[in-house]
Amino acid sequence: MDPVLRRYRALFLLLFFFFLNAFLRTNAEVLTLTAESFTDKVKEKDTVWFVQFCVPWCKHCKNLGTLWEDLGRAVEGEDEIEIGQVDCSLSKPLCSKLDIHSYPTFKIFYDGEEFAKYKGPRDVESLKAFVLNEAEKAARTKLEADT
């Protein structure tokens, strides 16, 4: 094989794996939930879901910037905690059913049920502390129910 062609092939493979890794890392931290996937996901056994409900035209949602993705990265590796988001402009019946009337709304779900609603400061540290605390409460509740 021609050395120049071999070099281009190696460069192509390197760039391909770099972008594939970046794509997988970005999407692994925050899962977009839809009306079709929401119920099955939040019913996952022993998993706490912290879900942001937003619409694209909301200035408060836009002002969050990368907050939700930053939170996803901050809790990555925490056992049984998932970060999700729902676009209520695409999932109106779901958002109505869940009593979402203002944006953004942040809710914790555990075993398919709403467990808590977040109303605190909008920074990664506060959100992370909240979800870790609620996950601990959910685990205790589950343990007490099993005994």
TrEMBL record:
GO biological process, one term: protein folding
Domain Thioredoxin: 24-136
A single MF term (Gene Ontology): protein disulfide isomerase activity
Name of protein: Protein disulfide isomerase-like 5-1
Keyword Membrane set for record: no
Species of provenance: Cocos nucifera
Gene Ontology CC: endoplasmic reticulum
Family that this chain belongs to: Belongs to the protein disulfide isomerase family.
